[in-house]
From TrEMBL:
Signal peptide: none annotated. Pfam families: IU_nuc_hydro. It comes from the Eukaryota. GO terms for molecular function: hydrolase activity, hydrolyzing N-glycosyl compounds. This is Inosine/uridine-preferring nucleoside hydrolase domain-containing protein. PANTHER family: INOSINE-URIDINE PREFERRING NUCLEOSIDE HYDROLASE FAMILY PROTEIN, NUCLEOSIDE HYDROLASE 3-RELATED. InterPro entries: Inosine/uridine_hydrolase_dom, Ribo_hydro-like. It comes from Nepenthes gracilis. Belongs to the IUNH family. Residues 42-385, 516-864 form the Inosine/uridine-preferring nucleoside hydrolase domain.
């Protein structure tokens, strides 16, 4: 759709250029001097950030006879979380009709202390932190914002655009069955010569090279977006993706070659993709495989311009063009400050364009291409800082080892201080820019120098009369709007009878029961508990709101699954608030967008951990698609520079929801709170109120461990040093300490009684014998999957943790369905000294402990009956059984 006469002229030029290119390509293929040209086989390794999506769609639009995208592997220690990223990729491929493209993510392999690399290392951690599991410290990743404002939450949801726009196909993440990143790399590269595109951290590919040196010969070339050699350091170019106007102050980043806007004070040299795993990037650059690098030097010369933005808005003749514009518009509308057009660049898509332009020419082209000026440089990737050979505890490759890991050279360039965290004191020099260079792609000489082809600048548009100032802008718009290889449909167009519906019950004639707020961290058990709360008659329990605490077993973007479950149950009226993404005292002292992972590091990233919780063990996409979703929002009325299209649907915070419901609730009825995760949100509520007990009737807390013997232990199976804490207390011990020092009436459902009711056979037996309501079927499927995984796979031994989480909801509603619980008052306190081996420990303290009610026993038969009977009750049952039922309705 072309509205501007300038665009019409440009479209004609683009068409002519495309025709000429086609003729030249045909001529090249039919040349008698060459055999039939085989397509370039491409493997894309991506962290699925918004600009990565632009690159992927650009590649999918190219002629497969010349450029054949064979596989996508997902880098999961960068800007996106594994479960959300892999399903995002599946949906993009489904839209584009490319379900043939193989997709790999994660893996459970490890690296031993001795440096042995086992099969299928998942890439969840940088190589320097990788051990034998998927748990570990966020040494580099903590520089990436976690929540909204361009952080991982926005990337996981693509700023809320992904859920409402992309169609949903059959492919999805499924535990154990999902192909790993290493499996896909090995399979694809084994099949023949392959060109590798790296547009995230280099972890996956470095592991592949270190584990499969015999396959290196099949890698024709590596094209990577990342690094900053240092040719550009203007003040505007320091303002990078996700940064606010405050983060872009010229005095803060003048002279920086990198883009770590969250930590310029420590490291002004690194770019995010290289910084996420410097040792991996070093391995790739030094692999002796030809490398072409498109660093910040080049991408800083191609910021999104107002003219390009407007022309993209006017030229959206394909679904993929629509998706790109809607994504870009949301980034623009939520950008803090007025510098979007100075600080959002064509990062990864520009690299894709440069790469395919080079590849379309002969192999000895010396980097000739249409879009970027190129230059050979001698570079290396800095992994540690001088002086080399020191032992200050920062470098696990050397610290405490007679023989360095991977047999690295003592006193070599890899043996210095490694940046440990944000604001590493070693890196900060008073009144000067930071001195750490981890991840810096530095020009050098001597034995460390590697000759790399480097893009230095985006080429200007050959047509000086065009409103588009860069040649690549012309190509990007033309390729995206080509009718060939176009997307088939959006979500709304996937179904001929699609209709957005809100389900809200009429409760006006009912005498509602006690008002309840459910605070959940979105583990598998929490979803089962939510089903139960929704099935208790409203006359007994009035569920006022759900507060999501993303400091536990799931990432913040999983809030969309909560919305879908509520839609399934006909409760689109229940508000959902999103809590803080960091535990108390874990937020960075300078930027609240980033912080430490001292506690959340205890949760596995892989199997049985975040990837499974974020997808409800592969079942989240079986839920019907609800109309509500996470949506970032700007509103001028709150001081933002601009409104998003629908600021009224922006995601509200947990505290905003709390304030709203306390104002609306009958003051004669205090609110009861059930918490099923870390106590971060509850602590924030307590700290925000002058007198919390005037609003809160009582709190039911599922969690904590009270020891009755020396041989008993908590459930921190990932942290052997802490034998007495339970996950919910450990994940935010300061919040737990705050809650247990408050004046609130507390009922504790501790680990001991949870373990007593954690029998998969018994609860499944009851469910199989009850009515087959949709919620029973979903619960059966989830519980059966957890049971099977626990039996068959070592990484899932802890599945009983989630089964016990249902108990709090059943006890809360005991006035309606009695399970004969017995309780005893005990004086309890929670320790939070900031010491890993002690934090979260719960003690009986007659002098300083808070008297609370502790659940010690329940009637097991009554408990299992209560859960099964309520879910099987046809009253307050699901109004939309599943996504498959929804598809039938819309088809």
């Amino acid at each position: 759709m072309i509205r501007d006469p300038r665009v019409s002229r440009m479209a004609m030029k683009i068409t002519s250029w495309t025709l000429l290119l086609s003729i030249l390509t045909v001529g090249r293929v039919l040349s008698p001097l060459t055999a039939v040209a085989l397509p370039h086989r491409i493997l894309l390794d991506t962290d699925v950030d918004t600009d990565d999506v632009f690159a992927l769609l650009y590649l999918l639009k190219l002629d497969r006879r010349e450029f054949d995208l064979k596989a996508i592997t997902i880098n999961v220690n960068g800007w996106a979380d594994a479960g959300h990223a892999v399903n995002h990729v599946y949906d993009l491929l489904f839209m584009m009709g490319r379900d043939d493209v193989r997709v790999g993510v994660g893996g459970e392999g490890g690296i031993s202390e001795g440096g042995t690399i086992y099969p299928n290392v998942g890439g969840y951690l940088p190589l320097i932190e990788q051990g034998m599991t998927t748990t570990g410290y966020c040494r580099y990743r903590q520089a990436i914002p976690v929540g909204s404002g361009g952080g991982r939450l926005d990337v996981d949801t693509n700023f809320g655009i992904r859920k409402y726009f992309l169609p949903q196909g059959r492919r999805k993440y499924t535990p154990v069955q999902q192909a790993t990143a290493q499996q896909v790399m090995i399979d694809v590269i084994s099949e023949g010569p392959t060109t590798v595109f790296l547009i995230g951290a280099h972890t996956n590919f470095a592991i592949f090279l270190m584990s499969n040196p015999h396959l290196k010969k099949n890698v024709k070339h590596v094209y990577a977006m990342g690094g900053g050699v240092g040719a550009n350091s203007s003040k505007e170019r320091c303002c990078v993706k996700g940064s606010s106007s405050a983060s872009c102050r010229p005095q803060q980043c003048g002279g920086a070659t990198g883009n770590l806007f969250t930590d310029y004070a420590s490291n002004p040299y690194a770019e995010f993709n290289m910084f996420a795993d410097p040792f991996a990037a070093y391995q790739v650059i030094h692999s002796m495989i030809p490398v072409t690098l498109v660093p910040l030097d080049a991408t800083n010369t191609i910021p999104i311009t107002k003219q390009f933005y407007d022309m993209l808005e006017q030229n959206r003749s394909t679904f993929e063009a629509h998706y790109v514009f809607e994504s870009l518009k949301m980034v623009h509308d939520t950008w803090l400050g007025d510098r979007f057009f100075e600080s959002f660049f064509m990062w990864d898509s520009f690299m894709a364009g440069v790469a395919v332009s080079i590849m379309s020419r002969s192999d000895d082209s010396n980097g000739e291409n249409d879009f970027a000026k190129m230059e050979y440089m001698n570079i290396t990737v800095v992994t540690s800082n001088k002086p080399y050979g020191i032992s200050d505890g920062s470098n696990p490759f050397f610290t405490g080892r007679k023989i360095p890991k991977f047999h690295l050279k003592k006193d070599g360039v890899l043996s210095g201080h490694v940046q440990k965290s944000l604001r590493d004191p070693f890196c900060i020099v008073e009144n000067r820019k930071g001195k750490c260079q981890d991840g810096y792609t530095m020009e050098t000489t001597g034995t460390e120098a590697v000759r790399v082809l480097v893009a230095t600048e985006a080429k200007p548009n050959k047509d000086s009369s065009s409103p588009l100032n860069k040649e690549y802008f012309v190509s990007f718009l033309e390729v995206l709007n080509r009718p060939q290889h176009s997307g088939r449909f959006s979500f709304a167009k996937q179904f001929p009878n699609y209709k957005e519906v809100y389900y809200k019950p009429d409760l006006s004639s009912k005498m509602l029961g006690k008002p309840v707020v459910f605070d959940m961290d979105m583990s598998a058990g929490d979803f089962l508990a939510l089903f139960y709360l929704l099935k208790v008659p409203a006359e007994a329990l009035d569920l006022k709101a759900i507060l999501v605490t993303p400091t536990g077993w799931a990432n913040a973007a999983t809030i969309d699954a909560v919305y879908d479950l509520l839609h399934m149950m006909g409760r689109d009226d229940i508000p959902v608030g999103l809590g803080d993404v960091f535990a108390l005292n874990q937020t960075d002292i300078i930027s609240s967008a980033v912080g430490d992972c001292m506690y959340i590091k205890a949760i596995p990233n892989g199997s049985g951990g975040l990837i499974d919780s974020d997808t409800i063990y592969g079942l989240a996409r079986d839920l019907p698609r609800g109309p509500r979703r996470y949506t970032p929002g700007n509103f001028i009325g709150y001081g933002a520079p601009r409104n998003t299209d629908r600021p009224e649907i922006r995601q509200l915070s947990a505290l905003e929801i709390w304030k709203t419901i306390t104002k609306k609730t009958d003051p004669r009825k205090k609110i009861t709170i059930l918490t099923n995760g870390p106590l971060t949100t509850l602590a924030k509520i307590i700290l925000s109120e002058t007198d919390p007990s005037s609003l809160i009737q009582g709190v039911y807390i599922v969690g904590g461990y009270i020891s009755y013997g020396d041989e008993e232990r908590g459930n921190l199976f990932t942290l052997p040093s802490n034998g007495y804490a339970e996950f919910n207390m450990f994940l935010d011990p300061l919040a737990a300490n705050t809650v247990f020092r408050s004046k609130l009436d507390i009922t504790l459902v501790p680990l001991g009684i949870q373990q007593k009711v954690a029998s998969f056979p018994r609860i499944l037996e009851k469910l199989y014998r009850t009515r087959r309501t949709p919620e029973v079927l979903f619960a059966q499927q989830l519980l059966s999957r957890l049971q099977q995984l626990q039996k068959e796979h070592d990484r899932y031994r802890h599945m009983g943790i989630f089964l016990g989480e249902i108990l709090g909801a059943v006890i809360l509603a005991e006035d309606y369905y009695d399970i004969n619980s017995t309780m005893r008052v005990k004086p309890v306190k929670v320790l939070a000294p900031g010491i890993e081996s002690i934090d979260g420990k719960m003690e009986i303290d007659e002098e300083h402990g808070k008297p609370i009610k502790v659940v010690e026993d329940v009637d097991l038969r009554a408990y299992y009956n209560a859960f099964a009977d309520q879910l099987g009750n046809e009253k307050q049952s699901a109004v939309m059984a599943s996504f498959y039922a929804q598809k039938k309705l819309w088809s």
